[in-house]
Amino acid sequence: QDIHPEPPVLSIAHVSADAELVALFSGQIGAAVRIDTPAFALNPKHVHGFLRRRDKEVVKEQAEAWQDKIRQAVAFRGAFYVTNGQLQYDEEASDAEPLRLERIEVKVENITNRPEENDEYPSTVHVNAQFPDESRIELGGRANLLSIPVPRVDADLNIDRLRLKNLLPVTRRFNVQCRAGALDVSGRLQYSKEST
Which residues pair with 17 in a beta bridge? Predict the structure, then answer.
C-alpha cells in the first residue's frame, strides 16, 4: 500500500487471540485468532500490484515454499474468525459507485500443519457476506491452506438475489454493462493451482 492511503487498505477495530493450554499436553500449540470489524478499501492499483507479485512468487515457488517451513514447525491446530467485516472496491471512475460488501463473517477451523493421513482438506471454511441491498453470498466447505503453491478449496457456493448492477464496478472493465436483473447461483467450487 502507499505510505498513507486514504482510506487505508485495511483497518481493524479489534484483534484477539486465545491460547488453548490443553493442546500443549498433547505436544502441539492451539490458538484461535478473532478479528472484529475489519474494513478493506481496494482499487485497481492494489489488485494489479497483488497479481504482479503473485506472478513473481509463482516463479520462485519451488525455491521458497513457505508452506513446507510451516509443516516442519512445531505442531499446531488453530482457528480464524472474522466478524462484521466490510469491503469496498472503488474503480475510481466518476460515473461508477464502489462495489461494497458488508457483514462479512469468516470461520476457518482446524487449521493445522499435522493433518490426518489422506486428509486432502483438513480445514473447514464458512464465509458469509451481504451487499447493501441484502443480496447474499455464502461459501461453505473444506480447504487445505498449506497446499503448494496456493491453498485448495472444495466448497458449496450460494448466491441469493444478487443485483447485477452491484457488479458494475467490476464488469465495466470488461466492457460488460449490467444495469438490471438479479442472479441466483447454487453450485460447487473447487479451487487449486490445477483448476478453478
Answer: 33
Residue 54 is inside which H or E element, if any? helix 44-59
Distance separating alpha carbons of residues 161 and 11, to the nearest angstrom: 29
Distance CA 132, CA 114 (A): 40
> What is the DSSP code (8-state) at residue 172?
G
CB 184 within 8 A of CB 165: no
Measured CA to CA, the distance from residue 34 to residue 15 in angstroms comes to: 6
pLDDT at position 136 over 80: yes
Q: Residue written as cell 460515473?
A: 95
> Which of 81, 90, 1 is CA-nearest to residue 38?
81
pTM value?
A: 0.81
Nearest to 105 by CA among 16, 34, 161, 43: 34
Average pLDDT of the residues in 76-92: 92
Q: What DSSP state is assigned to residue 69?
A: H
pLDDT, tens digit (0-9, with 9 covering 90-100), for 25-41: 777 888 999 999 999 99
